[in-house]
Every structure is written in structure tokens, then in C-alpha cells.
UniProtKB/TrEMBL annotation:
It comes from Geobacillus uzenensis. It comes from the Bacteria. This is Divalent metal cation transporter. The keyword Transmembrane helix applies. The lineage of its organism: Bacteria, Bacillati, Bacillota, Bacilli, Bacillales. It is found in: Membrane. Keywords: Membrane, Transmembrane, Transmembrane helix. InterPro entries: NRAMP_fam. PANTHER family: SOLUTE CARRIER PROTEIN FAMILY 11 MEMBER (PTHR11706), TRANSPORTER PROTEIN (PTHR11706:SF2). The chain crosses the membrane at residues 38-56, 77-99, 119-137, 144-162, 182-202, 223-248, 268-296, 308-326, 332-355, 367-389. It is a multi-pass membrane protein.
Amino acid sequence: MNRKEGRLSVLIGAVFLMATSAIGPGFLTQTTVFTAQLAASFGFVILLSILLDIGAQANIWRIIAVSERRAQDIANAVLPGLGYVLAAFVLLGGLAFNIGNIGGAGLGFNVLFGMSPKTGAIVSAIIAIAIFLIREAGKAMDRFAQLLGLVMIALTLYVVFTAKPPLGEAAVRAVVPEKIDFLAIVTLVGGTVGGYITFAGGHRLLDAGIKGKDSLTEVTKSAVSAIGVASLMRILLFLAAFGVVAQGLTLDQTNPPASVFRLAAGEIGYRLFGIVMWAAAITSVVGSAYTSVSFIRTFHPVLDRFHRWIIVLFIFISTVVFISIGRPVKTLILAGTLNGLILPLSLGVMLVAAYRRDIVGDYRHPLWLTAFGAIVVALMAYMGVYTAAQQLPQLFQ
């Protein structure tokens, strides 16, 4: 493989790493639940959230690239100590959500092979760990994300055809909705670019040496493409669920995405759900572990030298917690609250850094991108604080 092909492979790998990090068990559940609530009008929510996702991700990836630093180092340069705070938030949120991702992978194997979710979780964790023990771990991670990302999209597309959604109504309501759910918009944005997710691809490009002002065009295209891949999966899942809902069928509240696949395509659909759930969960395990650890590896040479083993430990701990106590509700509540606060914090830091010459040199950040990012910061900060005020008291009851 020549240098140009290698560079293109990394760019595509970063796209799918970020996209598949976003497409996890929570992504599948959120999309189907909101479709059941909003029907065709959920198309408008998806459309608006895509625009906000692009505004957040394009800002973050560009600043990481032009500063040639990871997010935590940029934050420490903006305000000493802030990078450690950001890293702590990401680590805690990433670890808690990884417990859920491991559980989702176990559920996928349970549907496919009938093995217990705990056994499925152990097998899935071994597969994820093996990726990071390979000598060319970066390339293996890229290929893994690409392959399973394409599998998820292809299988969900098949279910869309079997569900036969009213495409005309979906198209009209995507522009002229009957109702707008503000919380749904913020939930989708947080679920796509919140927490560690948006940094997965940005840090991957930096690790692969794609950085500096000369790379900004490629970086921006990759950032937008990653949102495109995640959004394509969101749209297909929405159409599949809408096809089921439009027929007057009721989704199983205990497992909404599974019931979409089963109601649309019968028992074959349920097996396909097992594949999609496992692919979504295991790629999120890989993306969460890689990105969460990337937030601490610059703090000390030892952490950088042994970062792959720390990633393995991260996955191991997530699996042990799931097997021993399941998905601890209070920890997940806290992680969800922190996740809602990470995006406005991290994006706000990036927007400040974009105008610090000691960080970005003579680079001039586009004003429209700054304005776009500021809107996302304000929106997510408001809803993040609101969510924290509602949920944090539950942790002490």
C-alpha cells in the first residue's frame, strides 16, 4: 500500500471509528423509542440534529488537527488543570457506558446463539481485546469498524424494505413536522457527538499523523462523512421503525429495536437484530476504550508507552463489572449526566482555543463555524444542566 492509499485508509477508518462509536445499544433504543413517540415528525428531529452534529464535530476535529494536540492537552493550554477535569469526565462516562456496551454485545450473542448474555459478554470482550493486542492495532481497529459498520447498514436497509414505511409522509414531515420534541433533538446530538464519541476519529487521525493546516480539507471531509455514516444508520432505523408504527403495530417496550426487526421481518428479522446489536455494541466497546484511554496517555510517558495494555484493562474492568453486578443504574445515571455536560465543555474549550495563537498559530478559524459551535454549546449546556438538576438527586436517595 502506497502512502496515498494508506492515508485514505486512515481517513476512512476514522470516519467509521467515530460513526460506529456513536451507533451503540443506546443509539438503537433511542431511535426506535422516539420514532414510536413522534412517528414521521421524528425525521425533522434527525435532520436538525445532523446539522448540530456537523457544527460540533467539524469544529472539534479541525482544532485538534491544526493544534496537533489531543483534546485534553488543548484544554490544559486554555486553562491549566481543565484538561484533567475533561479527561476524568470522559473516563468515567466512557467506562460506565462501556459496561452497557459489553452488555449489549452479550445480548447480541444471546439472540444469535442462545448463550447467556454474560457468556456472550466474555466472548465479545476477548474479541475486542484481541484487536488491541495485534501488532498493527490501529489498522485492525479501522478495518473492524468499517466491516461491521457496513454490515449494520446493509442489514438495517433490508429491514426497511420489509417494513415498507410511507416514504412520502416521512419526507414531508422531515421538513414540516406535526410536532417538535426539543429533548429528542438534544438527546440525539448527545448520543451522536456527546462524551468521548466525537473525539474518536479526531484522535485517531492525530495518532496516524494526519494533522496541521495542510490536512484541514481532508479532516473536515472526514468529520462530515462520519456524521453522514452515523446519520445514515439513524435514518434507516427510523424508517424501519416508522414502517412498523405506521401499520399500527406496537413496539415491545422491554426491547424496542428488537421488536422493530421482528415485526418487520419475522424470526429472520430477529436474528438480524442480533447481528446488528452485537456489531453496534462491540464497535462501541472498541471506540470507547480507545478514545477514553487516549485522554490520559499524554499525561505521563509511562501511560503513553503502555496505552494498549491500559485499553485492555479498560475493557476487562467493564466486563468484570457487567458480569458481577450488571449495569449499575446509579453509575449509568451519573455517566449520562456527565455525558450531557462533556460536549458543551469540550466544544467550548475548542472554540476558545481556535482564537489562541499560542495554540493554533496563524490559523484563522471560519466565523460561521464558530457561530455554529456556539449555538451547540448554548443548547447542550442548557439541557445538560437541566438534566443534571433532574437526575443527580436520584443518586443520593
